[in-house]
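Entry 14. Structure prediction run on the chain below.
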Amino acid sequence: MQLKNNSNGEKLIKYEDVYKSFGTKQVLDGANLDVKAGEVLTIIGGSGTGKSVMLKLLMGLLEPDSGNVFFGDENIVDKSEEELLEIRKKIGMLFQSSALFDSLTVYENIAYPLREHTKIPENEIEKKIKDKLSLVNLFNVERLYPAELSGGMKKRVALARAIVFEPCLILYDEPTTGLDPSTSNLINELIINLQKKLKVTSIVVTHDMNSVKMIADRIAMLYKGKIIVEGPAESVLNSEDEIVSDFVTGQISHAT
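Output returned:
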């Protein structure tokens, strides 16, 4: 699969009639969604509606019960672990919990995927780490441990690790959860700046409407296992659909 960082608007991701359940709970019920290269797409919806599941399906961390998930011209479904490892190098993911290793320094956390999956010499690893930390506005933190970092700093270290392979796609799982408004705005600005500097495609899962309004080019909403609306941010934010407008304005009783 030949993929480059680009912003040409061609379709990069396709979810095709995707079903996923956990026990008796049907999370995705025939979800369909296209993601264009170079855009920031936000997926909104109530808690437990399957937003994070869609990201994990794209990473190959979960398999759908049925349906297809395409990344470029590759169907993620039924790929071997070896094939998935190659695909994941093209995707950076910022997990909701940041998922840093507590026993490793900032430097070691960011170096970990490079040491595990490449033969890059240490001097080049060091250069990459400094470069990626500067992109997320962190300096002189390499020797610190996660316990010594604020919540916002942890997110930024995790983001530096997510982009260390220079991916063409970045996935954000609730990037502002648990952060104060000022730090949330900082993360939102980073998402926008990385989009411009790295010319990547971004999918942001969130229920933070302030974040959506700041960063989204397009919005898709999950409701009862399906994408019920997708389109330019302004049109979705001003939708007259009762379920969508209730969620956007904070009246979430319809959207859970």
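Residues 1-5 have pLDDT under 50 and may be disordered.
Filed with the rest of this week's runs.
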